[in-house]
Design a protein that fits this description.
Layout (H helix, E strand, L loop, with lengths): L7 E8 L3 E2 L3 E5 L5 E5 L2 E4 L3 E4 L8 E3 L19 E2 L3 E6 L1
Antiparallel strand pairs: 1-6, 1-9, 2-3, 3-4, 3-7, 5-6, 7-8
């Protein structure tokens, strides 16, 4: 049995660990501050959450944990905390 689920295009594949409670995504701005955004997934699988809106190509997503995240707080990058190359998916099907 085959089920055709169609294709997703123009979406970003966000690692599941970067997708926070209440649909939040933490983005590290060019000024190295935290930007907390609420996004709506268009699809999920075991490894990624796919979003269409709320992120631009080249933006950095925080994948690590923060004890008390506050919008605008200053961050510093450490290995494994910020993912600088979020996968932009042109077609996923």
């Amino acid at each position: 049995m085959t089920i055709d689920g169609g294709e997703l295009s123009g979406v970003f594949a966000i690692p599941r660990k970067a997708f926070r409670d209440n649909g939040q995504l933490w983005v590290l701005t060019n000024e190295d501050t935290l930007d907390i955004r609420t996004v709506t997934p268009v699809w999920r699988d075991s490894d990624f959450v796919y979003i269409r809106d709320g992120l631009a190509s080249g933006e950095r997503v925080v994948t690590g944990s923060l004890a008390s995240p506050v919008n605008g707080m200053k961050l510093r990058t450490e290995a494994g905390v910020v993912r600088s190359a979020v996968r932009e998916v042109v077609n996923h099907g």
